[in-house]
Amino acid sequence: MGEFKLEQELRNKVKDAARLYYREVFKSKKNFDYIPPSGKLLGEEELLNMIDASLDMWLTSGRFNKEFETKFANYLNVKYALSVNSGSSANLLALSALTSYKLGERRLKKGDEVISVAAGFPTTINPIIQQGLIPVFVDSEVGTYNINADKIEEAISPKTKAIFLAHTLGNSYDLDKIMTLAEKYNLWVIEDACDALGGEYKGKKIGTVGHIGTFSFYPAHHLTMGEGGAVITNDPQLYKILMSFRDWGRDCCCPPGKDGICNKRFSQQLGNLPYGYDHKYTYSHIGFNLKITDWQAALGCSQIDKLDEFLKIRRENAELLTKLLAGMDEYLILPKINDGVKPSWFGYLISVKADAPFTKQQLVEYLENHGVGTRQLFAGNILRQPMIVDNDVDFRIGNSQLINSKDLNEEYYKLLPITDFIMNSTFWVGTFPALGEIEITRIANTIIDFIKKYK
User: Fold this and answer.
1) Cut 0.70: pTM above it
2) Is 221 annotated in the active site?
């Protein structure tokens, strides 16, 4: 008992010193000469949790990870949450899990098709190609910048087995239409909610409606672990498969440092292994190691406690931008929110109208030169990126026949007119919670000052 008390006293002294350090070095509010489009907001609680994890000297996933996975599942009101080392890994894990032989006839096999969009981030598309599947690109819509759900059904073929889509910058797509099509055609649905944590669709958290949801905790996102992500599901079979793929492909579900949870460690015969071969070293999938460290989980445990406040600020920032830019609708297209959607606003998307007397490029360069950070909608049109153009990739566009990337030309791009519009005319500015009324007003005024030159 005496040793434990001493340990706690020493631990508290270290944390007290760290608390003082944070307050002296980091406490003052940052004044932005350049307003970044995204960023993290960390407090002393995060620093103390990371130090607490360091003092445990436990180097992989441990008590903080268990706490975070429980907190995250409870926040989203789902049965299962698995932490991973990035949102990109979350997407890789989610798609790979659907190739498991344990899913029988519903497993994805090489040559099967997956519905997605070309206006987004590459790591929604990469796992499809990496698993030998065929991406099928459907055009997006202006305003929400999500998939045009009315065009999905015409793109479905007998080979289509899944729909894998990101909710663009925290604004939900039409999940009712998508889930109806999924049921009609027996399709899997993966919600890439990496940019949409905390957003809602008709009262349900984004990411929880499909079969699997994915999230990112990169510093730019709604909560951060530095690097990190998560996969969620309500399906116990998918949960076991996801855990297997995350943890080297092993069949055993025991966490690091634990043995015998299934009580079958030496009493099974799997594959062509001898009876009783140690279950901890039995592998049922060709998997990965995508786990996080307990330092990351400790950071996440503090961040998730602040998530609702972060989301409140993001929404207030977006609402203020909409109010301040309302008079610019002759030149700009502001974000559209569909009925029943409560966005979580990773960023604020703006499009320059086709008949405006200036281009997106001109506006973006002006903003950057005047201290306002901007970002493109990631890849723009991913079919124009060298990752596709300069590689040997098969895909379809809408209801087209199979296309190889080596054959791409402008006629094919005409099949995705809104995607090209997004690439040429759309950008976004920040809403993240370190920004407030002063910064948001400055963003809007800088945009207005630029436009006044053309009136």
Assistant:
1) yes
2) yes
